[in-house]
Design goal:
Layout: H1 2-77, H2 81-94, H3 97-108, E1 113-123, E2 129-141, E3 149-157, E4 165-171, E5 176-180, E6 186-189, E7 214-224, E8 227-236, E9 241-248, E10 254-261, E11 266-275, E12 295-297
Parallel strand pairs: 6-12
Antiparallel strand pairs: 1-2, 1-11, 2-3, 3-4, 4-5, 5-6, 7-8, 8-9, 9-10, 10-11
């Protein structure tokens, strides 16, 4: 019995020892599993944070690219100082009064034929424009083989002996014919292009040549007589004469003129008709009264 009891006791002690040896091993496995889960969770969190960080970096990069694109676009939209200077120079050239007048002079040479009417008005003391007091009618045809053709009729012209006369002038290559209403003679003179009237009221060279008496200033673009026109103000040094001139921005020709002289009423002239497509013949350049009076040939 004692031997069996001793054997049983020893077996029990060995089983107990084995049981104690296994418990720590199971605990370690549980801890490793927890650790793996924690590590996996931590790895997932790190991965999420990394991905978020990468997304934020990409977003920031896109914003930076967008900002750079916006900046480049703004820089492209903004003209350089050199471009701004060129634009200012171009604008200054366009608005130079001498250039505008020279353009009008050049424009007049571009028409091979035309017919026009200027209407003249007095200006009242309060500045209002009175009814028309006279007209200027002009017909013109270019001639390649000699002096140009023209016909001119000025009505309402103030002369010393007759305050409301009409002056007639006409030119063919053979002669320039001159007649004043009320006189009993017609004068023939040598034909020459220096007598050909201009589209403008005055020969515009008197505003631009070296002996010009006028100081010019540009006043802007205005709508007048149905045109958009450059307005130029001309004044003598003494200030006794003021002339306002308007030139069509499209064709360049003069379309209005206001004149004010010290001690006299002002005059407003308006271009009321201009036709550059008119067909003219030599019959358009004859004065009908010339056959009624004796002719004085001064050629």
């Amino acid at each position: 019995m004692k031997k069996a009891s001793f054997f049983l006791l020893c077996s029990a002690m060995m089983l107990t020892a084995c049981a104690e040896d296994r418990e720590p091993t199971e605990t370690e496995q549980v801890n490793e599993g927890d650790n793996e889960q924690v590590e996996n969770g931590q790895h997932q969190e790190d991965q999420v944070e990394t991905e978020v960080g990468e997304e934020e970096t990409e977003t920031d990069h896109e914003l930076d690219d967008s900002s750079d694109d916006e900046k480049e676009k703004n820089e492209e939209d903004q003209p350089s100082e050199e471009e701004e200077k060129d634009e200012a120079i171009d604008e200054e050239d366009v608005l130079n009064p001498v250039d505008i007048i020279n353009r009008a002079i050049e424009a007049e040479t571009q028409f091979s034929s035309y017919s026009l009417e200027w209407q003249h008005h007095d200006v009242a003391e309060d500045g209002s424009v009175m009814e028309a007091k006279g007209f200027t009618l002009i017909k013109y045809m270019e001639n390649e083989n000699g002096p140009d053709y023209f016909y001119r009729e000025d009505s309402g012209v103030e002369l010393e002996e007759n305050d409301a006369s009409t002056i007639y002038e006409a030119q063919t290559p053979e002669a320039r014919t001159h007649y004043i209403e009320g006189e009993d003679q017609v004068t023939l003179q040598t034909a020459s292009d220096e007598f050909v009237p201009t589209i403008s009221i005055r020969d515009l060279h008197e505003f631009t040549n070296q002996t010009a008496l006028y100081q010019l200033s540009y006043r802007g673009i205005f709508e007048t007589e149905g045109y958009e026109a450059y307005h130029i103000f001309a004044e003598t040094e003494k200030g006794d004469t003021e002339i306002n001139l308007w030139f069509d921005t499209e064709t360049g020709i003069q379309i209005r003129q206001n004149e004010f002289f010290a001690g006299y009423n002002g005059t407003v002239s308006r271009l009321t008709m201009f036709d550059s497509d008119v067909e003219l013949t030599e019959a358009d350049f004859q004065i009908s009264y010339s056959s009624q009076y004796p002719v004085i040939d001064e050629r």
